[in-house]
Write a structure and sequence with these properties.
Elements lengths: L3 H16 L6 H8 L5 H5 L3 H23 L3 H18 L7 H8 L3 H24 L4 H25 L3 H18 L7
Helix pairs in contact: 1-2, 1-4, 1-6, 4-5, 4-7, 5-8, 5-9, 6-7, 7-8, 8-9
GO molecular function: DNA binding
Keywords: DNA-binding, Transcription, Transcription regulation
InterPro entries: Homeodomain-like_sf, HTH_TetR, Tet_transcr_reg_TetR-rel_C_sf, YxaF_TetR_C
């Protein structure tokens, strides 16, 4: 059973990915999560900033688990891109990445530090997966950075244009790069 505290963290991440950090108020989180009114300051004595930080941590854990569970680097690409593509389509292009929203909008160092840590964690996991598939350390670092920045940019453009084409194009191009680097013969899905 999920606690009211956990529901609030998840609700914050979900609301941020659609509304942004500035437009997500504690009252919205309470309504979305169904948590009792007094629970916000009971569970989050640091207020909204603490809740933002924990929502970023939740999103970081969620994506990191997907990366770590994929059997190889090509599957990492497929799982992550498919997940964001699905979220965008199901939300009528409102649901982006909550970590990007916090990175762009947050005006406090702890939230920005958490966003930076999330991106770093994801890139390190991707780099390790690429290295496991035979890519050199330096090249794996470059591809991980390219993947992360290209994916996040594609999400932003897809949201703005309400079209999955940027996600599909970046996914296809990165898949070709990863297939070539890992020696996978068929980069097409």
């Amino acid at each position: 059973m999920v606690s009211p505290r956990e529901r609030m963290v998840v609700s914050t991440a979900l609301l941020i990915r659609e509304r942004g950090a500035h437009s997500t108020a504690i009252s919205d989180v309470l309504a979305h999560s169904g948590a009792p009114r007094g629970s916000a300051y009971h569970y989050f004595p640091g207020g909204r900033n603490q809740l933002l930080c924990e929502a970023v941590d939740y999103a970081a854990d969620f994506i990191a688990a997907q990366i770590d569970a994929a059997p190889n680097a090509l599957q990492v690409l497929d799982v992550v891109f498919d997940g964001f593509r699905t979220s965008l389509a199901e939300s009528d292009y409102r649901a982006g990445c909550p970590v990007v929203a916090v990175a762009v909008e947050a005006d406090n160092a702890p939230a920005l530090d958490r966003a930076a840590a999330a991106f770093t964690r994801w890139m390190e996991s991707i780099r390790r997966r690429l290295e496991d598939d035979g890519v050199s350390h330096g090249r794996a670092e470059e591809i991980a950075m390219l993947l992360m920045t290209s994916l996040e940019g594609a999400i932003v453009v897809a949201r703005a244009t309400r079209d999955a084409t940027p996600i599909d194009l970046v996914h296809r191009q990165l898949r070709a790069i990863v297939a070539a680097e890992t020696g996978e013969g068929n980069s097409l899905r």
